[in-house]
Amino acid sequence: xFAALAQRDFxxxxxxxxxxxxxxWIQKVAQNWLVLTLTGSAFxxxxxxxxxxxxxxxxxxxxxxxxxxxxxxQLLLLSQCVQMLAAFALGFLLYLDxxxxxxxxxxxxxxxxxQAFGGPAYQSLIPSLVGKNTLPNAIAFNSIQFNLARAxxxxxxxxxxxxxxxxxxxxxxxxxxxxxxxxxxxLRVKHVAPASSQPMLKELKIGLSYVRHESSLLTxxxxxxxxxxxxxxxxxxxxxxxxxxxxxxxGPYSRLMTAAGAGAVIGALIVAWVGRFRHMGSALxxxxxxxxxxxxxxxxxRVLWLSYPLLFASGMAQMIxxxxxxxxxxxxxxxxxRGRVMSIYMVAFRGGMPLGSLVAGYLANLSSAATVLxxxxxxxxxxxxSLLSANHxxxxx
Length: 397
Prior knowledge:
Elements: H1 8-39, H2 42-69, H3 72-95, H4 101-129, H5 135-163, H6 165-185, H7 200-213, H8 215-231, H9 233-236, H10 238-245, H11 250-274, H12 280-300, H13 304-332, H14 338-366, H15 369-389
């Protein structure tokens, strides 16, 4: 289960990323509540998530080509520095008590720009730190650190808001980036980019053509888009569910987020334990159907104590699905094109987040958060069921 952590460079980067992810979740939870406090609107919650992820749609394909052509460590380092400065800037504006909603939206967009170049570099660097047989284990542990932080971060956010306020919470996120920056600087493995005289646009077209003609990759990319578009709004609309459905405040909201994060950790541990096995695609689709049912159950729940285990189970199912998808894409992609393949996948995977959040926020203003999540869960299960019943290549990977 712990094979990837036996590799020194992966272990160092894992710890740095874990610390930074805790800070990210502190900010995410506090920022969602800040946006709701400033505006009282589910639409602005969706808009903030949309602007934070929009650069993924705009720039990540270029980021994938850059990750194949240049030093991935340097790209990752620059990305972390920009995100750190954005967190400190928001904390400073709150400290001065001059923050406006446009400040929050602008800094979310800047952070997304940094992630558009850092994301492909990070994902394509991981295979260089571990062996191919250990890659699914490494991807699962990468998910574990993010989702363990997802469980811990909201609890710290709740305490931080009570002790140091919004400014202190965002300052903690800024400080967390120092740990991952130190980890990146200490890596021993270096990425040697292949010499290339071809224009960047031509290399991008080669990557797009490869994915288009590799049916399994194309299906996984489309499925990644559907999953994030339909499942991520559960987190985006969580403050609305806590306040309007359960009539609760920040404390229960942070605990709901923690329940989902704790489930995701268990899901990632399951993927790490199982490792690579035959017919991962079929297993992925079965869990996807279960995920859709759990989202519907949470959306229809009106009892807070019942919602905690439902979110725990949905977080577990979601992480199993996402980890398996990422593992399969990494295993199929050749090393010399991994940056481009991962960037194309991440356009769908990450691009579904802002689009789904924006649409869900808009529709929740017209109807209700519970109704939107119910529809999302049903559609997600139907998509997975259709692929499972069809004789598709994804069932055999």
